[in-house]
Amino acid sequence: MRALFTCSYNGTRFLGSQTQSETKNTIFGQIEHVLKEINISSKPQPSGRTDKSVHAIGQTFHIDLPKFWNDLQKLKHILNEMLPNSIKILNIKEVEADFHARYSAKSRVYRYLIKTDDSNPFEDDFISFYKDVNFKELESKIKLFIGEYDFKYFMKTGSEINSTTRKIYKAYAYKKDDLIVLNFEANGFLRSQIRLMVGALLKLDATQIKEQLDCKKQYKIKPATPNGLYLAKIKY
Q1: Is residue 51 annotated as a catalytic residue, yes or no?
Q2: Catalytic residue among 51, 98, 117, 118
Q3: Which residues, in sequence order, are bridge partners of residue 64?
Q4: 139 and 57 both lie in a single domain
Q5: Which of 49, 73, 94 is the C-terminal boundary of a domain?
Q6: C-alpha 10: how far from chain center
Q7: Domain of residue 54, CATH code
Q8: How many CB atoms are closer than 10 A to CB 192?
């Protein structure tokens, strides 16, 4: 039986989500280790990867389960008992045999959280602190990303990909209490693309962002810090 898992995690102390041969200290390294402990040898196939210190409230992955694991609620309970407290299985459901957590996805939603106060030890792992943020300008500039573009100037090098073109369906900013929330939904994202887009929003003006989007000029920008980034939802 093929099953779709939805999970959340605090990525602060993990070296990203992707399994690595040299360490188990990744999100799916931990999940894969626990699955083997309960005789599930199938490797988790995630919807995508997240970087070190990035969080998720709606990451997904699929697994082909052996026949003896047909009680999905029991499986969920056991996994949550065995996994670190920083990783939580939210839901497991049966899907079609040809379903794929990555390739069947229609869009991916990310959120980025910003505060303009001084950082504090209770929120620093979960929110990015930036002062002197002009919300009205940011609210206007973020809409420039909507559409289909070649995002080759908004990605980290080192990824093996066929195309750097992505289509962003939604990009908007809003305030929630003392938070600034940036919301992005697209058919996919390149490595560190969102953090580089946020970095551009914080440093560049609208004309400069458009020049970089149109691949006319590349500006030197730092990616925004990872701790404010959340994979919110995978839509199927």
Answers
A1: yes
A2: 51
A3: 2
A4: no
A5: 94
A6: 12
A7: 3.30.70.580
A8: 21
Encode pLDDT of 112-128 as tens digits. 999 999 999 999 999 99
Question: Does residue 157 have a pLDDT over 80?
Answer: no
Residue 26: which pLDDT band, with cuts at 50, 70 and 90?
Answer: very high
Tell me if 17 is assigned to some domain.
yes
* 223 shares its domain with 143: yes
Q: What is the pLDDT of residue 158?
A: 67
Same domain, 223 and 142: yes
Q: Is 89 helix (H, G, I), strand (E, B) or coil?
A: strand
Q: What is the mean pLDDT of residues 185-203?
A: 96
Closest CA to 176 of 115, 124, 131, 109: 115
Q: Where in the sequence is the domain holding 20, given as residue range(s)?
A: 2-94
Q: List, as one string, the DSSP characters of 12-54.
A: TTSS-SS-BTTBS-SHHHHHHHHHHHTT--SPPEES----TT-
Residue 100 lies in a domain: no
Instruction: For residue 224, give the H/E element and its range.
Output: none
Furthest C-alpha separation in the chain: 59
Query: Is the Cα dihedral 113, 115, 121, 122 positive or negative?
Result: negative
> Alpha-carbon distance 99 to 104, whole Å?
6
Handedness of CA 189, 194, 200, 201 (dihedral sign): positive
Q: Are residues 64 and 137 in the same domain?
A: no
